[in-house]
Amino acid sequence: MHSLSCYFLLHHHFEALTISSNYISAYSGSVNNDIMSDEREGTDSIDSAEPQTENLSSDSTINPTDEENQFIYDEDSERLTCVGSTFDDIPQSIIDAYASRAKILDLSKNHFRSLGCVKHFPNLEELILDDNQLDDVHTRFPKLPNLQTLTLNKNLFQDIYKLVDQLRQAYPTLIYLSLLGNEACPYRISSVSSNGADLSPFAQGRLEEEYQRYRHLLIFRIPTLKFLDARDINANERRIATQLGDILYSIAETKQSQSNADDDDQKSSKKDLYSPLPSATNQSQTRTLFGKVRHTYNGEGSQGNKFLRDVDL
């Protein structure tokens, strides 16, 4: 009986060991499978991440030539456009790529003050420079023998005589010109004055006369023009410009010379005024001034016998 009990105990102990070893083997196999599966998934994730790294290297947000991407060139119209940016010059890479091919150049709404970069576009037929910072002082127009259309609306030009002489010399084939929005152009789009008040009929008539004289001047000085500002140039305007152009221009020159002469006269008259002081004095030396000193008694301090009459003394 005792031997039988020992047999059963040994049998159960052997089965337990067998089950434990099988369980450990199964568990270790499961763990190994999980580890291998994780390794495969990690390898797959790394492989799938590699193309993303390549895409980042070609992302346009880190492309150093983003500035150049704002210039758009159309092959069909041979038009180079950069509108609504802050450029004050054209990048050299753009000049090298399109200067010999572009016939239309649109640089509206930028910050251009000089046009030195435009001289590299010898084949231009149309130049659009609206809403920039061009003025009488900093802007010099490069010579473009084929240019026919030029728009300079909303810039800072003030001297129409200086401007028209530059345009005449630089663009011998100019047909279309627009100067609206400059102080040099007296044309008013609306009938409202600068302070918001409506212009009187008399003021509107004076403005129209001034604008017509402006048109006659430009038609006479640039005879190739066929369209100026907002309308065509008709035969009657051209006839009047031919008759009065010299007179209008000579009047302007006379006024300018008279203004300069008046300034010189004022300067010379100031020099002729008498002064007791020498014309040039050393600032470190003392100078004596002559004049009346006005003094009033305000009731403070002793004034002696100043206010006593002779009979009271």
From TrEMBL:
Residues 35-66, 255-286 are annotated as: Disordered. Residues 50-64 have a biased composition (Polar residues). InterPro entries: LRMDA (IPR043313), LRR_dom_sf (IPR032675). PANTHER family: LEUCINE-RICH MELANOCYTE DIFFERENTIATION-ASSOCIATED PROTEIN. This is Uncharacterized protein. It comes from Adineta ricciae (Rotifer).
